[in-house]
Amino acid sequence: MRRPPRETVRSSGQTYFVSSQTVQRQPFFRHERWAVLLQEFFQHYRGGSFLLHAYVIMPDHFHMIISPQSSLERAMQNVKGGFSFRARSAFEWKHDIWQPGFSDHRIRDAEDLDRHIVYMQHNPVQARLCLATESYRYFAVNIDPIPQRLKPLSLSGSDGGAEAPPLQSQALAPRMEK
Predict the structure, then answer these.
(1) Are 122 and 133 in contact (CB under 8 A)?
(2) pTM, entire model
(3) Whether 18 contacts 104, CB under 8 Å
(4) Which of 3, 83, 102, 173 could form a disulfide with 168 if both were Cys (CB 3.0 to 4.6 A apart)?
(5) How far apart are the first and last CA of the chain?
(6) Alpha-carbon dihedral of residues 53, 58, 60, 65, nearest 10 degrees?
(7) Nearest 5°: phi and psi at 51?
(8) What is the pLDDT of residues 122-162, one digit of tens each?
(9) Distance between CA 153 and CA 156 in Å, rounded?
(10) Averaged pLDDT score across all residues of the chain
(11) SS (H, E, C) the chain
(12) How far apart, in whole angstroms, are the C-alpha atoms of residue 38 and residue 57?
C-alpha cells in the first residue's frame, strides 16, 4: 500500500520529528568525517531554512526535530541535497547517499516533543554506540528555542504576570438571591 502524498505546507509554524536513511542503510556516518560534515550542514541551514531543536546522527540514518521556516520539504531538500553535493566533492563519492524521501511526524504538544527527544537519546545507546547519551558526540538537544506552545506546562505556565481567577460559566456560577 502506497503512502498518501505529503501536503506541501508553507510557513506552517509547525515543528516536526523527521528521519532519513542512507541508501541501502550504508553506515556512512560511522566515519567521523561524514558525521561531522552532516553536523555542519545542520548548522549551516539552521536559522535560515529551519530552527533546529534536536538531532541524532546514527551510522545509517538521522533524526531531527525542526521548525521549518518555509516548508518541510525545502528544509529536507537543503540538508540532504546540500550534504550529497558536498560529500561527493569532499570524499570523491560517485554514488547515491540517501534513500529517496524522508519520514515525518508533526509534534503536537510538549509531551509528544519529550517522547521524541527521549527516543532520540536512547537510539545510540540501544544501538550500542555508547553507554550513555551524554558520551555520544552526534546527539544534541536544546539548540534553538522550542516554540512556546510546545514548552512543558512547568515552563510555560508562568510568565511572571498576575494570575486571574478562572471564568465561571453561567450554568456553574452561583445564583444571587434578590
Answers:
(1) yes
(2) 0.79
(3) yes
(4) 173
(5) 68
(6) -10
(7) -90, 135
(8) 999 999 999 887 889 999 999 999 888 887 654 444 444 34
(9) 5
(10) 84
(11) CCCCCCCCCECCCCCEEEEEEEHHHCCHHHCHHHHHHHHHHHHHHECCCEEEEEEEEECCEEEEEEEECCEHHHHHHHHHHHHHHHHHHHCCCCCCCECCCCEEEECCCHHHHHHHHHHHHHHHHHCCCCCCHHHCCCEEECCCCCCHHHCCHHHHCCCCCCCCCCCCCCCCCCCCCC
(12) 8
- pLDDT of 149 reads 84
Q: Order of strands, edge to edge, in the sheet holding 50-58?
A: 103-106, 16-21, 61-68, 50-58, 139-141
Q: How many residues does the chain have?
A: 178
Give the CA distances from residue 68 to residues 9, 10, 89, 101, 124, in Å, rounded to whole numbers and listed in that order: 10, 9, 27, 16, 25
In the chain, the amino acid numbered 85 is: F
Residue that the C-alpha cell 527521549 belongs to: 118
